[in-house]
Specification:
Elements: H1 2-19, E1 22-26, E2 32-33, E3 38-45, E4 52-62, E5 73-78, E6 83-86, E7 97-106, E8 114-126, E9 131-143
Parallel strand pairs: 2-9
Antiparallel strand pairs: 1-3, 3-7, 4-5, 4-8, 6-7, 8-9
Keywords: Signal
Pfam families: Nis1
Length: about 140
């Protein structure tokens, strides 16, 4: 009986690991942004071998390297519905098409100058049993 429980847990953890499939395509790590300005955050959904149901996405701004937290300033919180698009990446350097979604967010005017983490938290349901899965990815921005 314990073997079956351990096996089930192992399969669930492996499924969750496979489901971690997003990244921030833009802005790139180290981008300089101005407090009060709007930026486009492009989130790419990498292909998954598992059945995947998108639930939600949150974009936050906070001190760098705080994952899995996303920071004190929530810039977006809502649905994630990426669409198949041409990535503009040359063949051989990345996927020529991918599932992407752009979010326009505003860097708060109260954001202090210096390095800040732009963090994206992703929540989905994976596999035939619809196992909940979360992940957080980030890039560092230089706020001026």
């Amino acid at each position: 009986m314990k073997f079956l429980a351990c096996l089930t847990l192992g399969v669930a953890l492996a499924t969750a690991a496979v489901a971690q499939t997003i990244s921030i395509q833009a802005p790139v790590d180290g981008t300089t942004v101005q407090a009060g300005s709007s930026i486009t955050v492009e989130v790419i959904q990498h292909s998954s071998s598992s059945d995947l149901i998108q639930v939600a996405l949150a974009i936050g701004l906070g001190i760098p390297n705080i994952a899995p937290a996303i920071g004190g300033d929530i810039l977006y919180n809502g649905p994630f519905n990426p669409q198949l698009q041409n990535t503009g990446i040359p063949t051989g350097q990345g996927p020529p098409t991918a599932f992407l979604q752009n979010f326009t967010v505003t860097i708060p005017t109260s954001t202090p100058a210096g390095l800040m983490g732009l963090n994206v938290a992703h929540f989905d349901l994976v596999g035939a049993d619809k196992t909940p899965s979360t992940e957080t990815v980030n890039v560092t921005l230089n706020v001026v």
